[in-house]
């Protein structure tokens, strides 16, 4: 039944603890347990108390082989199983191969001195066993103390490994937090750059809208000029008509004179009257001509005044053109200053990255030097302790191999972290270069827009050369334009101030980052100091334990010498007693009687 049960548990993945106390398991049960330990991957605790497994040597050896192959069992209870020194030796071989068992209870068996020594020797290679109970096994107290010391040594080693793993985890978390902060700061910088680009685009849109308004105003003025031209043509036509009338009147006067000469003889009196009437008419005509000439003079004066006003307007337009060129030059200078600031910020960011890389390289070099010095000291001590015991040599060599593997893993992790940081920094630099390229393209587009605006202004100036009237309205419009330009300049000044404030904030963030990096450096230095202190404490503990081991070995030698002496004395006493008994028997009357017979 137990065989079937254990066969079914071989493929089970949910059972964590198995209690088979007091079931009188024999050879078949022990073999089934060995098979279970080889195949099962879920059982963590196995209780086999009161089963007399040590009586069946073949089954117990198969059980020990399964225990050596198992990598998941953590607790094993073998109390009251009649395990002798041979079974303890097989258990020691299994424990040398096992890497998961943490608790082993062997109380109330028959392990003895040889079994205790075998278990003590296996503890030099097993580093995972934390608890080993050997009470009630006729094991000497010095072996029990050595076993306890080995258990304490394993516990200290596992605690140190846990602490180092926790510290490495904490350092990795801090590195990830630093990466997150850097990414956040980089994203903030990119957001500010995007905001500046949006503000520049808005200003370009506003300027384009203003230029369109100016174009509309110029179109209106052009229409007004066309109407004024039409009025001037009408006045010129009226003047031509008046001149034709004057010419017709002259012709009429000539005809009247001819008629007067022809009819002078007949109608002298009538001619005189007609002469008087002609004189009156001529006076009227002269008056009309003088009035027309005065009107022409007034019109010419008006034309001169309009020409003067046109020249004044041309001067004002020239001043406006100069103001526009000055504003465009200032905008270009501000854009160049902004680009220079971006380049300086980029250089500072690159320098900070290079400083971080140099600091990391220095820290790695320090760690490697410290590890190399520790390895050299450990090698010297190992060479000194080689003459004491072969088992201690094996343990120290294994410790060295573990330290080398840990160092290799740490160096690989550092290399991976450095490679990841370099890749992320390269990606960030590429992203920044792309954004700078986009900014340059936007700047070129803005320059093209400015050139187009200049062309439009030139066309507007060419059109404005035709303006002659309505100077007062144009002056008012020019004053409004000047006010708008002043408001734009104020807005640009405010935008520049905002950019300066944002740059100051970014400088403050960078300074905060520097302070945070200094704090992290101080933390790293403190952690290095703690690691040095822990390593020194560990070395002192190892030295103390080595001294204790040497003392225990000397005590063992003294005890063995005492035991050999006691055995010799007991053998001598036994021989003396045997001789005395024989002498007594021979000298007694019973002995004489038997000899006589």
Automatic annotation (TrEMBL):
<dbReference type="InterPro" id="IPR001611">
    <property type="entry name" value="Leu-rich_rpt"/>
</dbReference>
<keyword id="KW-0175">Coiled coil</keyword>
<dbReference type="GO" id="GO:0005813">
    <property type="term" value="C:centrosome"/>
</dbReference>
<keyword id="KW-0963">Cytoplasm</keyword>
<keyword id="KW-0206">Cytoskeleton</keyword>
<dbReference type="InterPro" id="IPR032675">
    <property type="entry name" value="LRR_dom_sf"/>
</dbReference>
<dbReference type="Pfam" id="PF13516">
    <property type="entry name" value="LRR_6"/>
</dbReference>
<dbReference type="GO" id="GO:0005886">
    <property type="term" value="C:plasma membrane"/>
</dbReference>
<dbReference type="InterPro" id="IPR052116">
    <property type="entry name" value="Centro_Cilium_Assembly"/>
</dbReference>
<feature type="coiled-coil region">
    <location>
        <begin position="289"/>
        <end position="544"/>
    </location>
</feature>
<feature type="coiled-coil region">
    <location>
        <begin position="211"/>
        <end position="245"/>
    </location>
</feature>
<protein>
    <submittedName>
        <fullName>LRC45 protein</fullName>
    </submittedName>
</protein>
